[in-house]
Amino acid sequence: MMKPKLVGITIVVGTVMCLSTAIAQLVTGTPQDNKLVPRSATFYVNLPPATTPPDNVNNNKTESLGVAISSSGNVIIGWEDDGDGLTDWEAVWTMYNPLGQPITPDTVVTSIDPAYAGQTITTRFMSYFRKDGSAISGRTGWGPKIKANLFGTGVGMGSSTWDLGKEVVEFAPWTDANEDDYPAVQLLTDDGKPIGIVAGVSSAYAQGAGSIRIGDWDYLSNGNIVIVGESRQEDDLVNKYGGAGKGRHVIFSIVDPAGNVVKAETLVSDTPTPGEMWHGVGVTKNGFGVRWSAGGRATVRLFDNNGNPVTPNIDLGTLTGKEIAAGGGRGDSAGFHGNGDNLYVAVCSGRDDQQVLHVWVTVLKADGTLVYSKSVSDDYVLTNVGGTDAAIDAKGRVFAVWDARIENDWVDNLVMGRVLDASGKPIGGTFYISESEYETSFAYYKSDNPRVFARGDQFAVVWRSNNSPDYSGTPVVAGRLFGVLYEPGTIEAEGLTRIVPDTVIDSPQYNALGNWEPYASVLGNSVFLIEANTFATNTADKQQFVVQLQPVDGSKPAKLTYAFYTDAGAPYGDEFNLSRQNGNPGRVAGDKRPGAVNYMTGAEVSPHGYPDLFNSDGRWDLFSSLLQNSSARYGCVQTFKLDLATLTPTPLSKVQDSANGRVTEGTLVGDQVTRFGGELACLDNGNFVSVVEDRSRVRRSDGNCVVATIFAPDGTVVKEAFKVADGDIWSNACAYRGGFAVRASGIIYFYDNDGNLRGQVDQAISGRNFDRGRGDGTRIQGHINSPYVFLAGTTGGMLVSLAAFDSRDFSFVSVQDVSEPGFPGTADRVGLAVDALNRVIVAWTSNPEGYEKSQVAARVMALNESAKTITPLTHSFFPFINTAKTGGIRSLQMNPAITTKQIMIAAKGEINMQNKPELGADSPTEVNFYTVFTHPAPAEDPTPGVGGPAPTLSVRLTGTTVTVSWAPAATGWVLQATDSLSTPNWTNVGTANPTVITVGPGAKFYRLQRQ
């Protein structure tokens, strides 16, 4: 039904009184006043479909909403919408990403229930799953309860099921003759894949006369699951629990994720007296709490993870001295949650002793003592309140939501919210949750029954709305997502130490020619390699390429060298590109094995045009004749060996074309035959892979393609150029343990070290909307000590995300948002680097609110292999000294590099050359610069060194001498010593094996280092 139009008059539609847009807005608070940043606009979940299938029908009976946020940031939303047949949505759920975009795929549901056998529907409204992973209809249980694991991965839906055993045969024993209800919970992964179903009571317990409705459930911090039921097996209160009379009562049980019983059915109350419950389980780090109605009053009891009571029954009215706190009945329109740490929050509505209507919040500690109890709605006079809920985060902030009507407001109830700080002080005023549903926005109909969930700095709110734009008057599930406003700080605020201040690479006299940006790598774990553009010798309009050699620990000054050397072995700084001077940037890759000395450079150049310097062996003769354009440029590479002591490079190969230098026939079309474009990477065997975007039309006659070539350190071709995929590429190639990966058009291709394709995976499996283009703002990276490949990029608006994939089986591992939910501003290009322990530095060009120019932001994340989760090691921060809201300070187009102890980020922009950003920018345009700082979790590098791991040292003490030796066959090692491991200063002792050392005063520590 379409909305009626209003023209400055009051009209009546049915029985609903509606106002024109001339009425002034009564509620004036905003999310921003409450330090919240909307992550999504209002979205509607179960709108009637335009066509079927999919069979996502709306039965016009939406109720019993729930919402939760997974560890990856995905949001699960559940509801009930009674209908007929397989589209009787008694208990269903679907999932959204952190920006409010649906991610649950349309799925074929097939029934094996004799009453519906063989019938199918296609829907993204899920319920339970069979053991084989097939989905069943949402008609087998009702009253969904939605939860997410606050202590790890996993989400789920519980319901009061009566018919589950007809679709999932393992649960047939739970079905009694009357098909009475019993609680059952579907456990899911963070992206909604089935794990298994667990029951809240045993099959024998379920056979009693009467139903057991699900009250609520949750994940415990020890990995188990607590399930609470409202038992209507009323005789049990007498026969099982010794009560004086029969009645409804609240019970709980604890099971592990496989359904094994940890604690059997137990009465929640400390007395065998009647009680009722509908919602009301929360968890803290050491236990859980249950809120139910005992004698019509809100009552709480707290337990440890084993189900042992920590408190007796707590009457919230008695505890607080506020009778209003005991309201909310069994919980239909009330809320109770834990913060996963040390606090619980309860919320309800009611009238105080002055008969003033309030939404009332009570916060308890994990031991049951009171923190505060107060009104959260005291900035407006309410004339009617419907549903309420509240979530509490780990910092003690409370986000309360409710539907209400404000005094002097003629429209029906609408959904509002407010945030309290940890002390209970309001951060801002009451605000409408929806940006499109408020009293002057044509919101004619009721919006009610909100539910809210908190995780970290994220909040998710759902409610029942009759105000969806195209179906006003039809009840649908509405949602909106929020983040807590976050303002990035400095590296020092994150406890990091700056090793090298902002340093300009080859300080230019002129403004850059455009598209000049640095790329970076690391050699072993000793030298950061930073490729940058600069001006060719004695020119102001020609480009060249240089490499800054920066010791990772800042122990010696950096050294600048040219990226390419002549055939005679001399660094070359003159013009080298005959057709373009404003890019593209070059590339550099170091051998990451400890003790390594080899690296490769790459860039688009035209060496055929300088035969006296680059054609000593005639390698460009035939190539030049195949060029359609004599001024063409193409991706070339060269390898070097670096003297780590003097930072002096020696070329190991001559400059050569990456992809087409060995082509013997055909025509290489255009003035950019191949381009970087792609990327360089050193493999774990010491060879290098070079990936370029090939525009020559040699391998694809009708377009561009991605081409890879493998080179030995001396420049020998190990595997000739081969096509990876059609399309374009920008960076997006990396090495991992045992091979390398290339990402093209949203597909990650996995190769072994010999260039054999092993498998591929579509990035879409991550559930995030990473760009599928050539990769300017979305990149992959890995490390030769790890089997994982990481993908980072913007996934919408201000959101930067990081995903991990396993090269061993080409599976998706985990995804996590990098930028905080409330990071203030949009994001652009993203870069990343990975260390040997799967810690990832992600950096991006941010456009934060309040800053006149873009600023590079960064965050360090870590993959937990066993838990398959990605978690932050820091908050987001601004890495450069040159960060300022005003004065023209700008940083962008960054690329990082990382060891297990240090981090380097390079970027381009306009800075203050004295590192005094408060004085404003005084550099030329787009200078290339970098900084180095400490790792938030420094550790030794476990990567096998060049030539394999270091041999074991043998130490023998004889009198005042120590003999240090190692296996005679292990050559190429030098013995080093230091006085301290906390502040080491390793010095060479010698290469003799064995080495005899005279014992002196103080401690000495020894190690072997590859020469």
The CATH class assignment of the domain at 492-934 is: Mainly Beta
| Largest sheet, strands/sense/barrel | 5 strands, antiparallel
Instruction: Report the CATH superfamily of the domain at 492-934.
Output: YVTN repeat-like/Quinoprotein amine dehydrogenase
Q: What's the β-strand tally?
A: 67
The coarse silhouette is elongated
Helix content: under 10%
Low-confidence stretches: 1-24
Q: What is the rounded Rg?
A: 33 Å
What is the number of helical segments per DSSP (H or I, 4+ residues)? 4
Structural class, from helix and strand content?
A: mainly beta
Instruction: Name the beta content range.
Output: 35-45%
* Intertermini distance: 78 Å
The average pLDDT is 94
The CATH topology of the domain at 492-934 corresponds to Methylamine Dehydrogenase, Chain H
Give the second-level CATH assignment, the architecture of the domain at 492-934: 7 Propeller
Write up this protein.
The chain contains four helices and 67 strands. The chain has 1011 residues and is mostly beta strands. Among the domains are: 146 residues, no CATH class; 443 residues, YVTN repeat-like/Quinoprotein amine dehydrogenase (Methylamine Dehydrogenase, Chain H, 7 Propeller), CATH 2.130.10.10; 57 residues, no CATH class. The chain starts with 10 loop residues before the first strand and ends with a strand. The N terminus is likely disordered.
